[in-house]
Amino acid sequence: xxxxxxxxxxxxYCLVPFYWMVVSSFRRTADIHAKTPFPSPWSLExxxxxxxxxxxxxxxxxxxxxVAATTTAVTLLVGTLAAYALARLTFRGRxxxxxxxxxxxxxxxxxxxxxxxxxxxxxxxxDSYQAMIVPSMSFALPLTIxxxxxxxxxxxxxLEQAAMIDGCTPFAxxxxxxxxxxxxxxxxxxxxxFIATWNEFIxxxxxxxxxxxxxxxxxxxxxxxxxxxxxPFGTQMAAGVLVTVPLVVLVLLFQRRIxxxxxxxxxx
Length: 268
Hints:
By secondary structure, the chain is mainly α. Helix content is 71%, strand content 0%. It contains 13 helices and no strands. It is globular and about 70 Å long. Pfam families: BPD_transp_1. It comes from Actinomadura luzonensis.
C-alpha cells in the first residue's frame, strides 16, 4: 500500500507542472493567473497567438527538427562504430579511452560556450545549422558511446564468430548479426540523444542571431507581450505544450523498445 501511495505521489509530483502548463495554455489572456483546475471558458487564443505570422514559431519547430534529427543520426553513426570497436577490439589503453569518454561528458557545457563562440565567429559558422549540430554532438556522443559499449559487451561472441565462419567479413557480421541484436540499445540511445538535442537552449541562443534559424526553445524565450515588460504567459505555455507533445508521443509509441533497451543486461 505504501509503495503504491509513493508511486502515485511521485507521478503527481512529476505531472502537475505539465498539467498546469496544458491548462494555462487553454485560458484566455485575461484569465491566465486564475487558480481554477480547469479553464473557464476554454480558449484557443494562446495557440492562435503562437502561430501568428510575426512569431515565426512554425519555422522554429522545423529548425529544431533539423538540428535534433541531424545530430541524432550523425551521433548514432559515429557512436555505434566507436562503441563496437571499444567493446570488441583489444588494444592497449582501451579502458583509458572509455574513461576519457565519460570524463568528457562530465565537463560543464557552459564553459565551452565562449571558446566555441570565438571559434565559430572566426570560421564564419555563426547563424548556421552546424554551429548548433557540432557542439550538440560533442555532448551526445559520449553518452552514446558509453551506453552502446556496455550493450555490445553483453552480446555473445559466439554469434559473431559463427557468422564469420559462414563467410561474413567482420563488418558484415557487425551489420547483419550484431547490429540487429543491439537495436533496443541503439533505439534507446537515439531517443535520449534526440530529446537532449531537441531541448537544448544555451548553444542555440548563443550561436544564432538570425530569427529564421532559431530553434523552438530560443523562440519561446523571446516571445514578447503587447507592452515592453509584458510576459505572454499564455503564449509561452501553448508553445511549451507544442514543443513537449512530440516528445511525449515519441516515448509513448516506442516505450516498449525504450524499456527493453534500458533493462537489457539487467537480468541474466
